[in-house]
Amino acid sequence: MQFDRRAFLQSTAAISGLAATGLAGRAFAANGEIKLGSIHDLSGIFDLYGKPMDQAVILALDEINAAGGLLGQKVGQATYDTQSQIPLYTQFGQQAALKDKVAVVHGGILSASREAIRPTLGRFKTLYFYNTQYEGGVCDRNIFCTGVTPAQSVEALMPYAIGKFGKKIYTLAADYNYGQIISKWVAHYAKLNGGEVIQTDFFPLDVSDFGATIAKIQSAKPDMVMSALVGGAHLSFYRQWAASGMKSKIPMASTTLGAGNEQVVLTKEEGDGILLAYNYSKELATPANKAFLDKWQKKFGDTKPIHELAVATYQGVMLWAAGVKKAGSIDRMKVIEALESGISIEGPAGKITVDPKTHHCILDVHVLEVRDQKMNVVKSLSQVPPKDTQSVCDLKANPNDTTQYEIKI
How high is the pLDDT of residue 51? Predict the structure, then answer.
């Protein structure tokens, strides 16, 4: 799809004019239902993340509506496919807020997509949930972040990986803000645990040939590789790594593999032994997770697509619903204040509690090992706070802050 900038600017002006004249209503369709916006990459190179995230919204709304909806109203879904193109996030964010009049938006995968849509939704005063693991540091009262941050995932992963594999680390990362920032966290937590990053290489999201990189790693002789690669093209690295024979010689950990269920796409030979750390795995042996898997199976017929980001999205919708119920309203500020009360829900991944200062979540974190295309739990940490973002963000003291901080490490 080609993006027509002139048409987009014209539509933006028209929509802004509508808002200025006060003709845009808020959050209710003509039939009185509450509307939720789901803005995800349902096609393009990031659809392996986006499709299950949208399915998670569908499942959550089915449950909410089966229980009577919210405030006596059905919750409807306005779905938008951004086609893995960042400009469409801004366009659809405006459409959701001003034309479709949603009460809340759940959406965004890449940090770049979040930063495309976040100021748009803030400008038009539409509540936003970002349900994706990311590099931390967003401080904005209009957004709630339900995914793990480095102080939750990387801090759990690094000591375990260094203890198992060794201290010399070679890092590979996607070349955009997530990869640039997460690689610094990898180096930080490596040093805290007696390790050292000896080299970091960055790759554009469309790179799929890693032959030269594999030769460089072989020459460097690290004890382990840390991967922060992202997206379908970067999956080629894991396949080429195994085909080169290096997988049996140098082990690997990753901050990203498995978040989009990539371990199912890879063969056992390509994925086995890779270490990860997330809030969720399908292998969690809890009644809540079993019930969730059963509901997903019944709704969609196959639990294979479920991944970390899908579960974070499901939990994000349920967290928003709990905020609406507590507020007794879909009014944005009333819901924000209800969520800021330290509200908690129980989800497939366990207890999720909103940290009022940062609008991030306190979560359980699990160190996982890929084995037979599954993410098996090897260590669990209970209710880990987002300490990284807490170090820069205090929305109680500074409620008008709208900054994404690059946290000094």
Answer: 96
Domains of the chain by start residue, with CATH: 26-149+285-364+384-404 (3.40.50.2300), 154-254 (3.40.50.2300)
User: At residue 377, does pLDDT exceed 60?
Assistant: yes
Short-list 384, 343, 354, CA closest to 155: 384
**CA gap 338, 145 in Å, rounded:** 15
Residue with tokens 């089915």: 62
Rounded average pLDDT over 346-361: 97
pLDDT score of 166 more than 50 = yes
Q: Considering only CA atoms, which of 212, 205, 214, 277 is closest in space to residue 235?
A: 205
CA distance 305 to 260: 8
Tokens at 10, concatenated: 């014209």
pLDDT in tens, 12-51: 443 333 333 232 334 555 468 999 999 999 999 889 899 9
Dist CA 185 CA 409 (whole Å): 7
Cβ atoms 186, 238 nearer than 8 A = no
CA distance 342 to 344: 7
Rounded-to-integer distance, Cα 100 and Cα 38, Å: 12
Residue 130 three-state SS = strand
Handedness of CA 348, 288, 334, 53 (dihedral sign): positive
Average pLDDT, the chain: 91
Find the angle CA(164)-CA(150)-CA(137) to the nearest 5 degrees: 165
At a CB cut-off of 8 Å and minimum separation 6, what does 211 contact? 240
pLDDT at 3 over 50: no
- Residue 301 makes CB contacts below 8 A (sequence gap 6+) with none
Residue type, 379: K
Helices (H) and strands (E) in the chain, counts: 14, 16
* Distance in angstroms (rounded) separating the CA atoms of residues 62 and 60: 5
Mean pLDDT on 118-143: 97
